[in-house]
Specification:
Blueprint: E1 4-9, H1 13-24, E2 28-34, H2 38-47, E3 53-54, H3 57-61, E4 68-71, H4 78-87, E5 91-95, H5 102-115, E6 119-122, H6 129-139, E7 146-156, H7 166-182, E8 188-194, E9 204-210, E10 216-222, E11 224-236, E12 240-244, E13 249-254, E14 257-259, H8 268-282, H9 290-309, E15 313-314
Parallel strand pairs: 1-2, 1-4, 2-3, 4-5, 5-6, 7-10
Antiparallel strand pairs: 7-11, 8-9, 8-15, 9-10, 11-12, 12-13, 13-14
Helix pairs in contact: 1-8, 4-5, 5-9, 7-9
Length: 319
């Protein structure tokens, strides 16, 4: 059975999870890890029996056993590391937000397409079984005409240090999922984004996306709420469906009552990394592609422009 040699660049909190999950996959071999903190790189390599560890990603990319990498570094250097990996001929899964801005993201997409390399973006919620149950209900017409999507992604400040604000760290998930669930691009964005606790990063965001079908997506994200909440509510002409992203519990409300479809809980990260490995081994376009990352980041940049201007921004010709 063909196995894919994978390296992980950045093995902090989330990167360590990548190493853990990849180590469990039948068709992947974690052959190297890299982190600027040498003691952390060594610790993770020893913990998961990875044969090589580095503090310089260039050295990891020179390792011929590494065919693909996942990149879990600081957000502001994701694009730099992805660019280096793609130019070294490696397939890449880069964590969201993929880049600092849409121009950097566009360059990554161009390189991957030119070099015929797989470029995936870490929109892990696309692999959440609850999300895919909701998507199936929408596609099969079980909700009727979809009118409103309402998403809440709320919590206290993350323990990990961040270098992008809540819009590109959290709200970007629901911006991407709005496109994924509805199967269309938004035509307008209005946003209110602010900073309450710190002066350097936005910590609360409210984004409204208008779609050609007439559906409106309301997205609220913050790092201010005492209790963590990850919820989605979809209102249709025939039913309302709610999803708890964390428990993957789906509830459908109709005129004759409410019921829960059976959704088997599975770890989204494992499903995502299995899919990435399969995409590389079989030459398939990933479910969350580089172009999906580019689209979501472009919408984020236009949402920031909307918030600065205090007005709706048209996306016509922008996506």
């Amino acid at each position: 059975m063909r196995r894919l040699g994978v390296g992980v660049i950045g093995v902090g909190y989330w990167g360590r999870n990548h190493v853990r999950v990849l180590s469990e996959l039948r068709r992947a071999d974690v052959v190297a890890v890299c982190d600027v903190d040498a003691s952390r790189a060594r610790e993770v390599a020893e913990m998961f029996r990875v044969p090589a560890y580095y503090t310089d990603s260039g050295d990891l990319l020179d390792n011929d056993d590494v065919e693909a990498v996942t990149i879990c570094t600081w957000s502001t250097v994701l694009a730099e590391e992805a660019r280096k990996a793609l130019k070294a001929g490696k397939h890449v899964l880069v964590e969201k937000p993929m880049a600092r801005n849409w121009r950097e993201a566009s360059e990554l997409v161009e390189i991957a397409e030119r070099e015929d390399l797989v470029l995936a973006v870490g929109f892990v919620e696309r692999f959440n079984p609850g999300v895919n149950e909701v998507r199936k209900l929408i596609n099969e017409g079980e909700l009727g005409d979809v009118v409103i999507l309402s998403a809440k992604r709320l919590s206290r400040w993350p323990r990990r240090h961040g270098d992008v604000g809540v819009l590109k760290d959290l709200a970007i998930h629901d911006i991407d999922l709005s496109r994924f669930l509805l199967g269309e691009e938004p035509r307008s964005v209005f946003a209110s984004i602010g900073r309450l606790k710190r002066m350097d990063l936005d910590d609360h965001a409210f984004v409204v996306l208008g779609f050609p079908s007439g559906c409106t997506s309301f997205i609220e994200a913050n790092w201010l709420t005492p209790r963590k909440k990850r919820e989605l509510r979809v209102t249709g002409s025939e039913a309302i469906v709610t999803l708890d992203y964390l428990s993957q519990r789906v509830i459908i409300e109709r005129e004759d009552g409410a019921y829960e479809p059976t959704v088997k809980w599975r770890e989204p990260l494992k499903l995502e990394l299995e899919h990435f490995v399969d995409s590389v081994l079989n030459g398939k376009t990933p479910i969350a592609s580089g172009r999906d990352g580019l689209m979501a980041l472009r919408i984020c940049d236009l949402a920031l422009a909307s918030s600065r201007k205090g007005q709706v921004v048209s996306l016509a010709g922008e996506l």
